[in-house]
Amino acid sequence: MKLFFIRAFRAAKLDATVFDEVMENAKLMTQAIIVVFIYGAAVAYGSFARAGVAGINSAIFITLIGWYIWAFSTYIIGVRLFPETGTTADRKAFMRAMGFASSPGWLRFLGLVPEIGGAVFAVISIWMVVAAVVAVKKALNYTSTQRAAAITIVCWILSTLFQGLLYIIFFSVFGISR
């Protein structure tokens, strides 16, 4: 368990070697999934704790769907639409790398602190995108950081818009208010 937290911390520190390590070891898929679930819980509690249990549960569900859309669309666009000459990718290895890239999102629970919720959201979101760029560059064997950044950011924006739409739908249907 200690290695799990060390890997997550290294990913948050943008240590590119951790993504190689994670991609090479198929046994780390469970750990990558746990990283994403902790991220989802941190978003839910940090942003929607005042909305009650229904708000927290909805937020966890929506965050996990949004993360998957971000990761999978980044993979598809990076491999199928904009590959580089040396692009070779294993989908599962890519998803493991993207899972660990979401470890900075664990700090989203700090959104509970009054008056800093918006700043926490912005800073942690940027940090996660940067970690994802590092992961995408490594996982897809890109030489261009700009290409990895462009694909990651475009897919993140699409995922964020989709999540926003889901929040509106879920919170309206279930009568959840912040």
Please describe what this structure looks like.
With 178 residues, this protein is mainly α. The chain is built from 7 helices and no strands. The protein has one domain. Helix 3 packs across helix 4. The longest helix is centred in the middle third of the chain and has 30 residues. The mean pLDDT is 93.
Gist?
The protein is mainly α and 178 residues long. It has helices spanning 2-12, 16-24, 29-48, 52-81, 91-101, 117-139, 145-173.
Kindly list the characteristics that best describe this protein.
0% strand; single chain; mainly alpha; 178 residues
Terminal CA distance reads: 35 Å
- How many discrete domains? 1
**Gyration radius, rounded:** 16 Å
| Percent in helix | over 70%
Write down the overall mean pLDDT: 93
Low-confidence parts lasting 5 or more residues at pLDDT below 50?
Answer: none
Biggest pleated sheet: none
How large is the share of residues in beta strands? under 5%
Number of helices: 7
Overall body shape = globular
**Given the helix and strand composition, which structural class is it?**
mainly alpha
